Amino acid sequence: MSAQCADPWEQRKLGDLIEINSGRDYKHLENGGIPVYGTGGLLAYVNEALSYKKDAVGIGRKGTIDHPYKLKAPFWTVDTLFYAVPSSQADLDFVLGLFHRINWKSKDESTGLPSLSKKIINSVPIMAPLFQEQQKIGKALSYCDSLITLHRRKLEHLREMKRGLLQKMFPKDGESVPELRFPGFTDPWEQRKLSDYLDVSSNKNRDGAFSKEQVLSVSGELGIVNQIELKGRSFAGSSVRDYGVVKTGDIVYTKSPLRSNPFGIFKTNKGCPGIVSTLYAVYRPTARVIPDFVQDYFNLDYRVNKYLHPLVNKGAKNDMKVSAANALGGEVQFPGLEEQAAISRFFSQFDSLITLHQRKELASMVNCLQIGGGPINPNRTAP
Asked: What is the secondary structure of 66-123 as a DSSP string?
């Protein structure tokens, strides 16, 4: 990719590189097993192919219009899908790269359900090199896509493995020991009120020691993070003196529903001290508990939802009607401090592994943009 090509790129229309097809102009094949695609992806298998010789790019004409993907011949598509067959002088992977970098929603001229016409698709302006250069770019983009897919699969495998371990390394309902356990630990886990492990913190930012730039938010995936880093700006009010102070190692309970956690979540502050709004409850760990273990215990959606459900009532605005103290009124089952520490160390290392794969995926995406983002930008000027 470092070699400079002498031929300039040409300003063209997307329709110069592709032929848009749709409908039921199919051929019957005896061997069967032909995949059927819709805007939601693979749907079924049939014996009839819309395209049985040429690969294509699939793009929805209604509904989901901004997620093009490669269709490997033979294939069949539902009526809500266009497929774009590259011309003899257009590389499929290069064309797919073009489709991915076009803002299709900005091309939508409908007033209701998003839709595209063949005329709109064909009229999109693009910059394109000669076929040989398209092939080189397309090959590089295809490699990047495969690399990103590989990292995503590894990442999902790690997340699924973690979910399984969160089940097996904590006792099931009605049992006092987990299915998987570190060597040397044999004592049954003890059932107590969560209030035996956490104390309500009433420490407020009265002295103004913390500013709006130090407001924290609670994320189901990321835990407790700086609000500006998470959301791009601070959502704090004019004064933050009534905000609760959160030290490193404190536990925070969100009094607002999340998608997978309708009664809120518990997270441990593993980063810098900061402050949270009055929508959160802040707790200090007692001598009976390792702070990180509290988050590990409640990391499984089923476990935190089951714990909070009997304690929380939802208000008319879907907010949580529960005091900071009452949220500690349920029972939990914890082991001794040494086993808590061992479990916390294990999941800390596991989370580091997940973060590593997330960074690898991000690095792969950046490399793809560096390889393909500039040359196939529709607004690129010819060199």
From this structure: S--EEEPSSBEE-TTEEEEEE-TTS-HHHHHHHHHHS-GGGG---SSS-B--HHHHHH
Cα four-point dihedral sign 283, 284, 288, 291: positive
CA 133 from centroid of its chain's CA atoms: 34
Q: Tokens 């590259």 — which residue? A: 86
Residue from 72, 78, 42 nearest 60 by CA: 78
**What gap in Å lies between CA 127 and CA 7, rounded to an integer?**
13
176, 335 in Cβ contact below 8 A? Answer: no
Kindly tell me the burial class for residue 73, based on how many C-beta atoms sit within 10 Å of its own C-beta (0-12, 13-18, 19 or more).
middle
Rounded CA-CA distance 217/214 in Å is 10
| CA proximity to 226, closest of 262, 259, 183, 274 | 274
Tens-binned pLDDT, residue by residue, of the chain (383 aa): 445 546 789 999 999 999 998 877 778 877 778 888 887 778 888 888 888 888 999 888 776 677 888 898 889 888 778 899 999 999 999 999 999 888 888 887 777 677 788 888 999 999 999 999 999 999 988 888 888 888 888 889 999 999 999 999 999 999 999 999 999 999 999 999 999 999 999 999 999 999 999 999 999 888 999 999 888 888 888 899 999 999 999 999 998 888 889 999 999 999 999 999 988 999 999 999 999 999 999 999 999 999 999 998 866 556 677 899 999 999 999 999 999 999 999 999 999 998 887 887 777 666 665 554 444 343 333 32
- Reported residue count of the chain is 383
The answer to whether the peptide bond before residue 74 is cis (omega within 30 degrees of 0) is yes
358 contacts: CB under 8 Å, gap ≥ 6? 155
> In sequence order, what DSSP letters do the residues of 142-161 get, joined into one string?
HHHHHHHHHHHHHHHHHHHH
Task: Round to whole Å and give the CA distance between 10 and 124.
Answer: 14
Burial readout 22-61 (b: 16 or more C-beta within 10 A, e: otherwise): eeeebeeeeeeebbbbbbeeeeeebeebbbeeebbbbbbb
